[in-house]
Every structure is written in structure tokens, then in C-alpha cells.
Amino acid sequence: MFGYLEGKLVGLSPMQTYLDVHGVGYELQITLHTYDVIKGKETCRLYTHLQIREDAWVLYGFATEKERSAFQKLLSVSGVGAATSRILLSSLSAEELHAIVWNGDSKALEKVKGIGAKTAQRIILELKGKLPQETYAEFNTAPHNTDEIDALNALLGLGIGKTLAESAVKKAKEQAGDKEITVEEWIKSALKNL
Predict the structure, then answer these.
(1) Where is this region: Domain III (predicted)?
(2) 157: exposed, middle or buried (C-beta count within 10 Å: 0-12, 13-18, 19+)?
(3) Of 14, 125, 153, 180, which has the highest C-beta tally within 10 A?
């Protein structure tokens, strides 16, 4: 329903915030990681997830799209609700959760308050197939390469293998030289190099 909300921070606590968006105050439940990112700011953008229950509509806010995505994927695990997902993402960053799932490290999840052995194993089992494997570590060294990373992720999303996709993106980079190109141009060029 809402992709994100951007506005003035009216009230902030480690668990929730009120965001004034053109005179409308939204109450958003947040994680500790989001709290750390937005505390001290006057305005911010929060990526949202709306959960509709019988007794309430609850809006969750996240500092990054990656954190929101991790929250939504956690909700898809049977027996894991919004409260557990928030606790997990308050204890671990989205990146840490991703690494734990891919490494199958259920012991690391068990260290989070309220997560037992069975729940930790279920999270790993159910999320391992839903989270894309981190493949762009080598591309992550330059701060200006987000289009390159997006192109690589798009190729992976199309079902192209990691090695082949990385090779195609590298060739596209060589062909582009110093010229700045859009994500779409990255993808088209990479697809021609397959």
C-alpha cells in the first residue's frame, strides 16, 4: 500500500516513531537498527510494511529497503510473526541475517532472545531458498557502482548463473569504459555478452 513515507520526525523511541507527512501523523513500529540510523535527524524516509490484523492496522518502518525485505521474508516463515521478526532485525542487521542463513548458522540465531533451536532451524531452512546468495562482494568496493550491482542482481533474478552473470557484467563494464550508463544499458549490454 505504501512503499515509503518521508516526513518530519515528531516523536521517536527505540521501538516506534511518529512521522508527520504533510500534516498527517503516521505511527510506525521500528527496529533498533532503524532507530540508530534516524535518531538525531529532523526528517527521514522510512520504507514501510503494512500488516492488517483483525484488531489493528500496524505500519512498520525501516531505514533501508534491504531491512524491509528481510522483515517481509521473515514473516513468510511459519511460526515467525512481526514481533519475532522485529527482535531479529533489532539484534542483527539484514546483512548479518543474510550471512547467517546462507552459512546455515542456527547457533547464531539462537543467541537472539526468544529464538529457540527449532525456530532457528526453520528460519534457515525456509529462507535459504528465498534469499539470493550474495554475489556482488567484489563489486562492492567502489561507492559509485550501484548500477553495476543492480544489473548483476537483475541477471541473477532472470535465472542466469552467478559466474556467467558476473562475466557478462564485467564485459559490459569494459565496453562502457569511462562512459556512465544506466542500469537498463548495463543489463542490455550484459545480455549481449552472454
Answers:
(1) 144-194
(2) exposed
(3) 153
Pick the CATH number of 4-62 from 3.40.640.10, 2.60.40.1930, 2.40.50.140, 1.10.760.10: 2.40.50.140
Cα–Cα distance measured from residue 93 to residue 100, given in angstroms and rounded to the nearest whole number: 11
Please name the residues in contact with 17: beta carbons below 8 A apart, sequence gap of 6 or more.
Answer: 9, 10, 11, 27, 28, 30, 35, 38, 46, 61
Architecture of domain 65-128: Orthogonal Bundle (1.10)
Helix (H, G, I), strand (E, B) or coil at 46: strand
pLDDT tens-digit readout, 118-164: 999 999 989 987 766 554 343 343 444 567 777 777 777 677 777 88
Asked if residues 60 and 29 have their Cβ atoms less than 8 Å apart, the reply is: yes
Question: pLDDT tens digits for 52-102?
Answer: 989 999 999 999 999 999 999 999 999 899 999 999 999 998 888 988 888
Q: How far apart, in whole angstroms, are the C-alpha atoms of residue 86 and residue 31?
A: 6
Q: Tell me the CB-side half-sphere exposure of residue 32, using CA atoms within 13 A.
A: 9
In this structure, what C-alpha cell is assigned to residue 28? 510506525
CA-to-CA distance for 159 and 166, rounded, in angstroms?
Answer: 13
